[in-house]
Amino acid sequence: MVHLLLLFPLLITIGCVLLAFWSYRYVQRLISIWAQPPVPGRCLRSTPGRRYRYNLYEFITADGHSVRFHEGGPPTVGVGALVAVRYPAGRPDLATATPPRPATAWVGLVAIWLLLAVIFLGCVVWAVLYGAALKGS
Predict the structure, then answer these.
(1) DSSP for 34-100, written as a single string
(2) Which region, left, alpha or beta, applies to residue 44 given φ > 0 means left and ψ of -120 to 50 means alpha?
């Protein structure tokens, strides 16, 4: 009989592994986008938030299509500001106007992984101790 108190740590550990994999893929994709040559873009609309602005950007792809996308940005970017937009070849829907900061992305990834490792190890310790308590009783 599987105890529910052993099922929860198992689900959380699976979630930690999936989040670690997803965060790595996200950073890899972002760094590969930053490696692309920039194209000029313009901020069309800027909606202020508490710490960031939510901007609507527009740029022209190499084949002449106009693409618009929303992205959060620093409060220094306002309506009409020129920005450097990068996107993977053939995927303008994945465009970003975020300035390249690969070191910051890797540091953030390591911080996320450390947090996930603590949660993962806590769940493993819980399962081991709970399993030992079940065998002892």
Answers:
(1) HTSPPEEEEEEEEEE-SS-EEEEEEEE-TTS-EEEEEEEE-TT--TT-EEEEB--TT-GGG-B-PPP
(2) alpha
Q: Name which residue leads in pLDDT, 19 or 130.
A: 19
Confidence grade of residue 1 (pLDDT, cut at 50, 70, 90): low
Q: Is the pLDDT of residue 32 over 60?
A: yes
Q: At what angle do helices 102-136 and 4-34 cross, to 10 degrees?
A: 170
Give the integer Cα–Cα distance in Å for 13 and 119. Answer: 8
Show Cβ contacts of residue 100 under 8 Å, excluding neighbours closer than 6 positions. 34, 86
Neighbours of 52 (CB within 10 A): 14
Res 77 pLDDT > 80: no
And the tokens for 133? 């308590």
Q: Angle at CA 132, nearest 5°, toward 126 and 129?
A: 20
> Taking 60 as the threshold, does the pLDDT of residue 85 lie above it?
yes
- What tokens does 14 get? 């699976």
- Highest average pLDDT, of 6-20, 105-119, 121-135, comes from 105-119
